[in-house]
Amino acid sequence: MKRYKELPYTKLKKMYYPNHFPFKSTEEISPIEGIVGQERAEKAMQFGLQVKNPRYNIFIAGLKGTGKKSYAQKIIEKNATLENVPDDWCYVYNFDNVDEPIALNFPPGMGKIFSEDMHELIIEFLEEIPKAFNEDQYERKKAEIVKKYQEARNDLLEQLTTYCEENGFTIKSTSKGFALAPIINGAAISDKEYEALEEEQKKEIEKKAEDVELKAAEFLRKMKGVERQAKKSIIALDNNIGQSTVEPLMEDLFDKYKQHPKIITYLNKVKKDVIENIYDFHITEDEQDEIMKDSNNTFVKKYQVNVFIDNSQELGAPVVIETNPNYVNLVGKIEYENEQGSLKTDFTMIKCGAIHKANGGYLILQARQLLSNLQAWDTLKRTLETGQVRIESLRTQLGIVDIASLKPQPIPINMKVILIDNPYVYQLLYTYDEDFEKLFKVKVDFNSEMEVNAENPLKIAQFIRSFCDKEGLKHLDGSGVARMLEYSHRIAGSQKKFTTKFNKLIELLIEADVWAGLEHETLITERHIKKAYVEKNYRNNKIEEKIEEMYKQGKVLIEVEGAHMGRINGLSVIDVGDHMFGKPSMITVTTFAGNKGVVNIEREADMSGRIHDKGIMILEGYLNEKFAQEYALTLTAKICFEQSYSGVDGDSASSTELYGLLSSLSNIPLKQYIAVTGSVNQKGEIQPVGGVTEKIEGFFSLCKYFGLTGKQGVIIPYQNIEDLVLCDEVIEAVEKGQFHVYPVTNIEEGMEILTDKSFNEISEAVKKKLKYYHDNIEQEKDRKKNSSKILRKR
Fold first, then answer.
1. Most buried of 378, 452, 483, 539 (most Cβ within 10 A)?
2. How many Cβ atoms from other residues are within 10 Å of residue 730's Cβ?
3. What is the distance between the alpha carbons of residues 512 and 535, in angstroms, rounded to a whole number?
4. What distance in Å separates the CA atoms of residue 375 and residue 398, rounded to the nearest whole number?
5. What's residue 37's pLDDT?
6. What is the widest separation between alpha-carbon atoms in the chain?
7. At what angle do helices 526-540 and 478-492 cross, to 10 degrees?
8. Contact assessment for residue 7 and residue 743, using Cβ atoms and an 8 Å cutoff
């Protein structure tokens, strides 16, 4: 038997051994600082954090499990500690427009202090203002005003009485005020006596009464003027007392906040309002106690301060991670309370959102969570574009009629937003949202794999040390680290790459720690890593076992011995999400004379994808260039993936199909114990494919079940050698000569392995068959042509 170049077992995966490491366990090495294998992303992140332009926000793109979120949080928090703490923000009552609360900013920590100062001021108002109005001096001055008023009133009343008596009338009090009564014979008469008078006398009295009433009205106006003046004097007195009481109480605040013009303006408004409403503070001690216990339901509530953002505990710029970025959680809300069946609110019920909390710092969001919440994405964009955030209800945003509400002053925003998601979401936003490119100019692109070099194995070991310390897991010995590195290669699907999907490594560590604990071991070894991997596969491979069972029961036809013409075993991969495995498939080819070319049965049945269709067309291109240079290709060939019921796509079986096609044309059988994978181009060159490790293991599993003969193996593209990360069982079989892996670069090499014949011999046989088809077709054409001539002569 001709020997073909095959891979030695040492090339089937990247192997590591405990003596490769300068430590006996991960406990001896230092934990890792930063992130492993993401140099490009780290540089982009550092640049993005340095740019302070509001349009240079950051999008971190990478596959799940590459550590995007944890890295972002760690590096941003570290960077934030070097930045200034942003201002506090408070909402206060707007004395000019109640519906538009005023936003005031303070140096960090001062907002809370200002709120406490105003609370103490309210207490002083409640205590000192009533005292001022209970002092003897105030009562004396007020009594003087009242006395002066009463004297002036009595004097006017006396003058009015004298005038009336001189004109024959007296004044009597009624429930409606004053009334005139005529005087006859020195005494006031009653209404009944008046009615008994002569008409002439009545007319004379009524005429006099008109003049007296006019004079009386004049006196009454003067009396009301005196009363108004007395009230004004009392108000002026109260205002003076109020001002003399309030100003000293507020003097310290004016001095304390003199460097803040907006606060001084607000304090002046407070002073003016308190003085104007000084009577509200005329309360008893019992009322003071009641107000202090429940100040939310009293007139003093408008003098309170809503500390909206308090940065008193911050040590640098804030870093906010919002895990549920809906509209309300982003921009805040205005709460309501039910009071006797009606909803009421005020400035103290304004609540902040994540944007306010991140103001002056960083806001970290998951992009898909943001996009899935109504109005959240548009609101965030608007905030970044305008540089301010306004608190409005979602109903208002949507243009729906809303209940009467407040319109708090917008707050200026200066923050950097970091969105995190996979590259697909980034591409969608970049392509379909014209604002995205303007606002997120820094892309931090996380790689799913990293190079194998002298430093990275140690860095992965340091990462393992860090995670074990963080989660309280057992440390790994050298054999455990070696197995973890091999597992990292398997996830990456390459001998020259480590994976950066550290969540996969973490899962294995956690599970291996459990198995080590069950064995009462102090270190995690190779045995525990392998056990964790095998058990994880067992939990997830039910579908794989069901399919293997169908092969073993003969329900899916396949042979791993002998040779057949126009039949070959191809290799495909099935990915069920949490598990991926190889599935051998029988591919059959039939050829006969005709002119339809290569027919894809899957395509005819509408079960073929576009890439698979392309692969079939490539086969026809190869045949035409190779065998149709002297005469036209007259051929009909039908290719089928047998027992395939869910459709076929991809071109990784195109070389397999070409082998079957050449076998059918040459009448040379193909070895059924060698399965094939690989793409082919029109020149017959083999091209690399994906999932090569799983494909080999899938075929090996069947061969093992039916019995290893020492002949079985697979043909793979030469370029896929570095992608092999096979399991130990396959490697051991290759080492013992029980299984073989043949790398090829072109169709010629593959056909020679599958047939034990030279490609020249195969090619001549194919040409002979195609010439036979061509000659038969031409003879048939001539026969039909001659038959047509005979009929015309008749």
1. 483
2. 24
3. 10
4. 8
5. 81
6. 166
7. 40
8. yes
Between CA 643 and CA 547 the distance in angstroms is 12
Q: What is the rounded distance in angstroms from the CA atom of residue 530 to the CA atom of residue 255?
A: 73
Buried b (16+ CB within 10 A) or exposed e, 563-598: bbebbbbbbbbbeeeebbbbbbbbbbbbbebeeebb
> How is residue 520 written in tokens?
């009462």
Contact by Cβ (8 Å): 442, 56: yes
Residue type, position 255, single letter: D
Averaged pLDDT of the chain: 85
Please provide the size of the chain in residues. Answer: 794
Euclidean distance between CA atoms 531 and 441, whole angstroms: 46
| Element at 589 (helix H, strand E) | strand 580-592
Contact partners, residue 399, CB within 8 Å, separation at least 6: none
Q: What is the pLDDT of residues 663-711, one digit of tens each?
A: 999 999 999 999 999 999 999 999 999 999 999 999 999 999 999 999 9
- Helix 478-492 to helix 502-518 angle, to the nearest 10 degrees? 140
Any idea of the CA torsion for 274, 278, 279, 282, to the nearest 10 degrees? Answer: 100
Q: Are 317 and 86 in contact (CB under 8 A)?
A: yes
Residue 206 has φ and ψ, to the nearest 5°, of: -65, -35
**How far, in Å, CA of 461 to CA of 448, rounded?**
18
Q: Rounded to whole angstroms, how far apart are CA atoms 172 and 527?
A: 117
Asked if residue 177 has pLDDT above 70, the reply is: no
CA distances from 686 to 36, 243, 720 (A): 35, 96, 10
Count Cβ atoms within 10 A of the Cβ of residue 266 and give its class: 0-12 exposed, 13-18 middle, 19 or more buried: buried
Token code pair at residue 236: 């002026």
What's the helix, strand, coil split of the chain in %, to 5?
Answer: 55, 15, 30
Residue 140, classed as helix, strand or coil, is helix
Confidence of residue 1 (pLDDT cuts 50, 70, 90): very low
How many beta carbons lie within 10 A of that of residue 465, not counting itself?
22
> Which tokens sit at 273?
């309002």
3-state secondary structure of 381: helix
* Token pair of 333 as six digits: 């809300």
Query: 310: which residues sit within 8 A by CB, 6+ positions away?
Result: 88, 109, 111, 112
The pLDDT, as a whole number, for residue 399 is 62
SS3 250: helix
In the numeric block, the tokens 């982003």 are attached to 330
User: Between the CA of residue 627 and those of 335, 501, 763, 765, 766, what are the distances in Å?
Assistant: 81, 48, 8, 11, 8
Query: In this structure, what token pair is assigned to residue 54?
Result: 């509001």
Structure tokens at 219: 């006196």
Comparing 190-194, 549-553, 560-564, 770-774, which segment has the lowest mean pLDDT?
Answer: 190-194
Torsion, Cα 465 468 472 474, to 10 degrees, reads: -90
Query: Using N-to-C axis directions, what is the helix angle for 199-256 and 110-134, rounded to 10°?
Result: 140
Residue 439 to residue 529: CA distance in whole angstroms: 45
Both tokens assigned to 143: 């009594």
Q: Which of 103, 117, 88, 115 lies closest to 314 in space, CA to CA?
A: 88
Per residue in 238-294, pLDDT (tens digit) is 677 767 777 888 888 889 988 999 999 999 999 888 888 877 777 776 777 777 666
